[in-house]
DNA sequence: GATTCGTATGCTTATTAAGGCATACGAATT
DNA sequence: AATTCGTATGCCTTAATAAGCATACGAATC
């Protein structure tokens, strides 16, 4: 069932952080490393987990891979992501991630990738 | 983290069904068996899971044990339970459970138990 | 006090998942 | 074509979980 799949994706802190960052727009893996301060394997595996379950899309851009939220989220997914955003607002962990994202943003060229253009938000990567 | 715990509770169909029924008010285990059409062990174990994590409270009433939603839910829990209710509205599984609950309701004496009185809704048990 | 009823728990098995290390991959660079 | 860079994956270990069977428990009844 769609709902179970969604909740399974949400019941890990790393994935929660990834999704919460992605809510601001597409991000590449290298930036996730900086923002979450977690090893590359860990991030890559959790992104794969989310990708395999359709919550997230990936697109290669040269050497980098840019991740974005799924373009056509189900009603359930949309509702739960909104709920997560709401709950994350006051949480120190998510707030810290958001701060690091803001810090990285200016030092990073904006990238426009064909496929991902349909996704919400702006492109933050270019490394 | 509170959020992770909540999502871990929500990522199982049986628990989702239990919580969705409990949103209508306290219910005893025997009625859960009728409503979910699942074996007693399964229901009892998932209720224990929810109880150990504080989403749910239990109170003995003679031979029966009546379960209810936690009396003082956190902001996160409240938000997610509301989201679940919203998502469950259109789902055939949850709708079927709700129908079975309605069917049982009239044939069942209303019980007032001391502790649980603080919980939302009405008591459905008495078997 | 023995039995019955409703519920909970211990045990076992199978599945899933998380984390880390090493390594493989594709694209760009040299 | 060899190397480098960013990312993904295979393998391993460990831990958590689900499900079912058998059994234990507490309260009521006989």
Give a concise summary:
Chain A has helices spanning 2-10, 13-22, 29-37, 40-52, 75-88, 92-104, and strands at 27-28, 56-61, 64-69.
Give the tags.
DNA-binding; 3-stranded antiparallel sheet; Arc Repressor Mutant, subunit A; homodimer; 127 residues; mainly alpha
Q: Quickly give the structural class of chain A.
A: mainly alpha
- Radius of gyration of chain A, in Å, reads 14 Å
CATH domain topology of chain A: Arc Repressor Mutant, subunit A
Largest interface: A-B, 21 and 21 residues
Distance between the termini of chain A: 38 Å
Query: Would you state the CATH class of chain A?
Result: Mainly Alpha
Domain count of chain A, please report it. 1
Shape of chain A: globular
Q: State the oligomer.
A: homodimer
Q: SSE order of chain A, as H and E?
A: HHEHHEEHH
Level-2 CATH architecture of chain A: Orthogonal Bundle
Largest sheet of chain A: 3 strands, antiparallel
Task: Report strand order across the widest sheet of chain A.
Answer: 1-3-2
Mean pLDDT of chain A: 85
Q: How much β-strand is present in the residues of chain A? A: 5-15%
Please, could you describe this protein's structure?
Two copies of one chain form a homodimer. Chain A is mainly alpha-helical. Chain A has a single domain (2-118), classed as Orthogonal Bundle (Arc Repressor Mutant, subunit A), CATH 1.10.10.10. The first copy, chain A, has helices at residues 2-10, 13-22, 29-37, 40-52, 75-88, 92-104; strands at residues 27-28, 56-61, 64-69. In chain A, strands 1-3-2 form a three-stranded antiparallel β-sheet. The longest helix of chain A has 14 residues, at 75-88. Chain A is globular and about 35 Å long. Chain A starts with a helix and ends in a 23-residue tail after the last helix. The relative contact order of chain A is 0.22. The model of chain A is unreliable at 111-115 and 117-121 (pLDDT under 50). At the A-B interface, helix 1 and helix 5 of A face helix 1 and helix 5 of B. Chain A binds a DNA duplex (30 and 30 nucleotides) through residues 12, 14, 28-30, 39-49, 60, 62-65, 127.
């Amino acid at each position: 069932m769609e709902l179970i799949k969604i909740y399974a994706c949400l019941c890990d802190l790393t994935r929660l952080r990834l999704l919460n960052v992605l809510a601001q727009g597409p991000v590449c893996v290298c930036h996730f490393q900086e923002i979450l301060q977690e090893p590359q394997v860990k991030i890559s595996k959790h992104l794969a987990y989310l990708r395999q379950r359709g919550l997230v899309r990936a697109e290669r851009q040269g050497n980098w891979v840019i991740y974005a939220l799924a373009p056509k989220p189900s009603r359930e997914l949309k509702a739960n992501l909104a709920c997560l955003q709401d709950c994350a607002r006051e949480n120190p962990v998510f707030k810290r991630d958001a701060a690091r994202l803001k810090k990285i943003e200016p030092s990073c060229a904006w990238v426009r990738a064909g496929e991902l253009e349909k996704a919400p938000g702006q492109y933050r990567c270019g490394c």
